[in-house]
């Protein structure tokens, strides 16, 4: 089972939107050095919605090849078309990814039965381990716990990234899902508490800019050391807040540029961080000790 801090890795770009492979290479090395336990390539923070299929697969391939087994690589392969999700998942498996992360189908608003059939079809079609991803704030569809429970019986569906921030929901999942089925936080604000109640890790936006702190926080929480985990979390809570002043990954990509780690490009329809937030994000980076 994958555990600990798993960064939802930003995809570096130049100002014209082209992919910055050198910065991607450097980010991967930095995360491994800083103690990140797994890399999530081309998830929401990686701008999966605006990378074309070839770019999507190439990012996964390059991350897998560079990591070379040092930590697991989770490939974001979700789509609102089941056939497209199967195609992306097949390609991620061929690239050598360790697992895939599949967001609930967005925009078309399937029923709970539709969600079940969607994920079951992908799992039956591709044998790679698969992690469900529930983020209704972005997709307009909420995968209910009873649907997750049904899917947990499918052999290669191995976990869920629960990004509602609802700790009562997380507790239901932790208490009712089979032993060995992982529940990950997808919400930095509530990640510590989810892990302290029995969750298995955090698929984190904040880890993009504070990888060592998030890794240490996760290790403490998973060891049951609530005092240490909460103390670290308190120190970086300001980052959890400012990295969502505008839609993710707008603030995190600006922050990484401010830190000198990427060029700062982002693809339309997303735009660079509004100038009125620059000072706030810069001060948060300084307060958290990462700038």
UniProtKB/TrEMBL annotation:
What organism does this protein naturally occur in?
Microbulbifer okhotskensis
Q: Name one GO cellular component term.
A: cytosol
Question: What is this protein's record name?
Answer: 4-hydroxy-tetrahydrodipicolinate synthase
Q: What is its EC number?
A: 4.3.3.7
Q: Kindly give the NCBIfam families that the UniProt entry links to this protein.
A: dapA
Q: Name one GO molecular function term.
A: 4-hydroxy-tetrahydrodipicolinate synthase activity
Q: Known catalysed reaction(s)?
A: L-aspartate 4-semialdehyde + pyruvate = (2S,4S)-4-hydroxy-2,3,4,5-tetrahydrodipicolinate + H2O + H(+)
Q: In which pathway does it act?
A: Amino-acid biosynthesis; L-lysine biosynthesis via DAP pathway; (S)-tetrahydrodipicolinate from L-aspartate: step 3/4
Q: Which GO BP terms, alphabetically?
A: diaminopimelate biosynthetic process; lysine biosynthetic process via diaminopimelate
